[in-house]
Amino acid sequence: MSDNPFSDPNTPIDPQDRLKRLTFRAWRRGFKEADLIMGRFADSRLHDLSPEEVDEFERLLDAPDTEVYAWICGTIDTPPNYDGPVLDALKAFDFEALADQGDGPSS
Q1: Cα 3 to the chain's mean position, in Å?
Q2: Model pTM greater than 0.85?
Protein backbone atom coordinates (compact mmCIF):
# COMPACT_ATOMS: atom_id res chain seq x y z
CA MET A 1 0.00 0.00 0.00
CA SER A 2 1.23 3.44 -0.84
CA ASP A 3 1.85 6.15 1.71
CA ASN A 4 0.30 8.60 -0.72
CA PRO A 5 -3.33 9.20 0.36
CA PHE A 6 -4.22 10.20 -3.21
CA SER A 7 -2.93 7.06 -4.89
CA ASP A 8 -5.41 4.71 -6.51
CA PRO A 9 -6.05 1.78 -4.14
CA ASN A 10 -7.58 -0.22 -6.99
CA THR A 11 -4.66 -1.79 -8.74
CA PRO A 12 -5.46 -3.26 -12.15
CA ILE A 13 -6.59 -6.87 -11.94
CA ASP A 14 -4.77 -9.57 -13.84
CA PRO A 15 -6.94 -10.64 -16.82
CA GLN A 16 -6.88 -14.31 -15.76
CA ASP A 17 -7.90 -13.40 -12.21
CA ARG A 18 -10.74 -11.31 -13.63
CA LEU A 19 -12.00 -14.28 -15.64
CA LYS A 20 -11.87 -16.46 -12.52
CA ARG A 21 -13.88 -13.88 -10.57
CA LEU A 22 -16.45 -13.54 -13.34
CA THR A 23 -16.82 -17.32 -13.56
CA PHE A 24 -17.32 -17.48 -9.79
CA ARG A 25 -20.01 -14.78 -10.02
CA ALA A 26 -21.68 -16.51 -12.98
CA TRP A 27 -22.13 -19.68 -10.92
CA ARG A 28 -23.52 -17.82 -7.92
CA ARG A 29 -26.31 -15.69 -9.34
CA GLY A 30 -28.74 -16.87 -6.67
CA PHE A 31 -31.19 -18.25 -9.22
CA LYS A 32 -30.45 -21.87 -10.20
CA GLU A 33 -31.55 -21.59 -13.83
CA ALA A 34 -29.44 -18.46 -14.35
CA ASP A 35 -26.52 -20.16 -12.55
CA LEU A 36 -26.64 -23.09 -14.97
CA ILE A 37 -26.76 -20.95 -18.09
CA MET A 38 -24.33 -18.23 -17.05
CA GLY A 39 -21.96 -20.59 -15.21
CA ARG A 40 -21.72 -23.18 -17.95
CA PHE A 41 -21.30 -20.39 -20.51
CA ALA A 42 -18.48 -18.89 -18.44
CA ASP A 43 -16.79 -22.29 -18.06
CA SER A 44 -16.89 -23.05 -21.76
CA ARG A 45 -16.72 -19.68 -23.53
CA LEU A 46 -15.39 -16.89 -21.29
CA HIS A 47 -11.73 -17.47 -22.20
CA ASP A 48 -12.57 -17.08 -25.90
CA LEU A 49 -14.26 -13.68 -25.55
CA SER A 50 -12.63 -10.42 -26.56
CA PRO A 51 -11.95 -7.85 -23.82
CA GLU A 52 -15.03 -5.90 -24.96
CA GLU A 53 -17.16 -9.03 -24.77
CA VAL A 54 -15.83 -9.80 -21.30
CA ASP A 55 -16.94 -6.28 -20.32
CA GLU A 56 -20.39 -7.03 -21.76
CA PHE A 57 -20.57 -10.32 -19.84
CA GLU A 58 -19.69 -8.47 -16.65
CA ARG A 59 -22.46 -5.92 -17.31
CA LEU A 60 -24.89 -8.81 -17.66
CA LEU A 61 -23.68 -10.21 -14.33
CA ASP A 62 -24.40 -6.82 -12.76
CA ALA A 63 -28.01 -6.88 -13.99
CA PRO A 64 -30.76 -8.54 -11.91
CA ASP A 65 -30.69 -12.29 -12.51
CA THR A 66 -34.42 -12.63 -13.13
CA GLU A 67 -34.21 -10.01 -15.88
CA VAL A 68 -31.15 -11.59 -17.52
CA TYR A 69 -32.86 -14.97 -17.43
CA ALA A 70 -35.98 -13.48 -19.02
CA TRP A 71 -33.87 -11.81 -21.74
CA ILE A 72 -32.15 -15.11 -22.48
CA CYS A 73 -35.49 -16.96 -22.61
CA GLY A 74 -37.05 -14.20 -24.69
CA THR A 75 -39.97 -13.64 -22.31
CA ILE A 76 -39.24 -9.91 -22.06
CA ASP A 77 -37.52 -7.51 -24.42
CA THR A 78 -33.88 -6.77 -23.78
CA PRO A 79 -33.07 -3.11 -23.11
CA PRO A 80 -30.76 -1.72 -25.82
CA ASN A 81 -27.92 -1.12 -23.35
CA TYR A 82 -27.75 -4.88 -22.61
CA ASP A 83 -28.42 -6.18 -26.10
CA GLY A 84 -25.22 -7.32 -27.78
CA PRO A 85 -23.18 -10.23 -29.09
CA VAL A 86 -22.64 -11.84 -25.68
CA LEU A 87 -26.35 -11.90 -24.88
CA ASP A 88 -26.96 -13.30 -28.37
CA ALA A 89 -24.38 -16.01 -27.62
CA LEU A 90 -26.08 -16.76 -24.29
CA LYS A 91 -29.43 -17.08 -26.05
CA ALA A 92 -27.93 -19.57 -28.54
CA PHE A 93 -25.85 -21.42 -25.94
CA ASP A 94 -26.84 -25.06 -25.43
CA PHE A 95 -26.19 -25.26 -21.70
CA GLU A 96 -28.00 -28.61 -21.47
CA ALA A 97 -25.32 -30.19 -23.67
CA LEU A 98 -22.94 -29.67 -20.73
CA ALA A 99 -25.22 -31.29 -18.15
CA ASP A 100 -22.72 -34.10 -17.64
CA GLN A 101 -20.37 -31.50 -16.13
CA GLY A 102 -22.70 -31.12 -13.16
CA ASP A 103 -24.43 -28.18 -11.57
CA GLY A 104 -21.42 -26.25 -10.35
CA PRO A 105 -18.13 -24.74 -11.43
CA SER A 106 -15.74 -26.94 -13.36
CA SER A 107 -12.73 -25.89 -11.31
Answers
A1: 35
A2: no
Cβ pair 104, 39 in contact under 8 A: yes
**pLDDT tens, per residue, the chain with 107 residues:** 556 666 666 677 888 999 999 999 999 988 888 888 999 999 999 999 999 999 999 999 999 989 999 999 999 999 999 999 999 999 998 776 655 555 555 55
Q: Which amino acid type is present at position 14?
A: D
CA pair distance 107, 93, nearest whole angstrom:
20
Q: By CB neighbour count within 10 A (0-12 exposed, 13-18 middle, 19+ buried), where does 69 fall?
A: buried
End-to-end CA separation in angstroms for the chain: 31
Which alpha helices (DSSP H) does the chain contain, by range?
A: 15-27, 32-45, 51-62, 65-73, 85-92
Single out the residue of 89, 25, 85 nearest to residue 61, CA to CA: 25
